[in-house]
Amino acid sequence: MRRIAIAVAASTLSLSLAACGALGGSGSSSQASPSKGNDVKVGLLLPETANTRYDKFDAPIIKSKVAELTNKQGVVEYANAGASATKQAEQMQKMIDDRMDVILLDAVDSHAIADQVKKARDAGIPVIAYDRLAEGPIDAYISFDNELVGEVQGRSLLDAVGSTGAAKIVMMNGSPTDPNAKQFKEGALAQLTGKVTVAKSYDTKDWKPENAQANMAEAIKAIGVGNIDGVYSANDGMAGGIIKALHAAGVAKLPPITGQDAELDAVQRILADEQYMSVYKSYPTEAENAAEMAVAKVQGKDIQFDSLTRDKVTSPTTKNIPAQLVPVVALTKSNIKDTVIADGIYKVSEICTASYRSACAAAGLK
Questions:
Q1: What is the CA radius of gyration of the chain?
Q2: Which listed residue, of 39, 107, 217, 332, carries a Cα 20 to 30 Å from 321's Cα?
Q3: Please, which residues have CB within 8 angstroms of residue 350's CB and are 6 or more apart in sequence?
């Protein structure tokens, strides 16, 4: 049985598979060029802008870390696909044509991008799957333990609505083209099944808040606004859309609603009792470690690369991919100070704007 904890020190998969990777791990590090110096060219492909984390955290942190690791000689070419798999394929082709030394890929559609991954491999360019596990012959993967994210969300929701089976909930899952969404859903259902009634469940196209809002409006009409005891939302952006739908239906006291990504709006909603929780994932840790993996890969630093990828994961096309799975934490009103503020994600002044000053004072944020 998987270990469940609100604050997670290390992923179960990491613990169970660490011995497979270790410092002498197999991987494909031998393909790196040992003669490559600091003039490293890293291609960074991120999937969309609806989630603010990509432009605010991931891209700038990766750029800064690559510069630090290469004595400011390395460069990062960044492209965002705006949730278009077609656009991302074109962006990746350009990076292959421009002869990037390594590509960090956060796929819009993990299956559709597989051909481009193979083209990169054929061109001798390593591809590291970032945040989402792309298909094709990728060289490594870094993300969070996604099933555990769903478990933490599910367990948190049970804490709020009870586990007797009487509570009715709506499940607002992520995009069906994102493999992470499937893992979040599986993790959540592992906790929720038999303990609540899932009255309605949706896979939300492109993770868009407006699609979640439309889905929630449909759920309210089908179930009845007074019969919804809680909402499983796979991320914060969708939680915002769900809340709009509930307000539009005249709901004053919102049911517990989960989230993920610790977006600023979500942190404020948690303080104001509009959103029950989010899942905080340390983007600085993920982004910095991805940059280290990329640079180590192309500089032929096999020992360093292997020490960063001690886990193993399997995609639908590739087995035993060297991986790093980063821990997660359930974000609630009680630990905002110890998580997003302590890690420098947000300042108190950013969170505690005029509308939230009283809520901040009540939570001890000064």
A1: 21
A2: 39
A3: 264
